[in-house]
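TODO from last week: model Transport permease protein.
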Amino acid sequence: MRRGTNDALLEEPGRGHGLRDVISHRHLLALIVRKETQVRYRGSIFGWLWSYVKPLVQFLVFYIALGVFLALNKSIDFYAIYILAGITIVTFFNEAFANGTRSLVDNAALIKKIYLPREMFPVSSMLVALVNTIPQIIVVVAIALCFGWQPTLLQIAAIPLGLVLVAVFATGLGMLFGAINVTFRDAQSFVEIIVMCAVWASPVMYHWEMVASKVPEWLFSVYRLNPLTPAVELFHYGIWFPLHPRNAQPLPDLWAYTGWAFVTAVAVLAIGQAVFHRLEGRFAQDL
């Protein structure tokens, strides 16, 4: 049979091209992100002001309770800034990962009614988390400026580099566990455990030297291969390290392990996309 001129344009219904479809439907992605960010403070009098108040209150609590009362400033200079910088990037990861895992279930009604790139939901969850993180970064930077922050261009570049690293890593995990969560809702509970442990799996509450002094060298190398560890240290390098605390050094081989972290993050993204693509044919049925 002779093929018509438009046959090449026909595709099997519901067959997508993964993350490429998200890029081609970026106008729809922007609408979803805008809707989710507006819902966050709907009905609130102060609205987005709360996004700046919360990290400021966090800083005051850390400064007084941890830095002064528990005297942690003696072990780590500017401890409140140190911990707030680390918590900022880990909070971004936790929100993007957890919301990405729930995104398909939360949008079940839309998925069952029409076809659109399903990867859009984990990706939009990551972007919403990024939008929610920006005010906290602004607050941390403003506080650091008050304490004499004078970074180099490389140290400033470390901040967006850490954000990109976590964005890729969290999106891959969100797609992977989000696809599994459609059929097995236990995945959501498992993710909650990972999120709970994430803040302790990287040098947020403590300095990396405490880990290096307690574990064998090979285990410390594994610790540094966790993408969250170089991401947290990139934030410390950009925001906290320019304050020149006493006897402090950035994570050994920070840039080398950042490169390996990006390899890991991209691999997780590829695995997440592969599993997502394999399971998405059952999404409407299982939801």
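Done. The radius of gyration is 21 Å.
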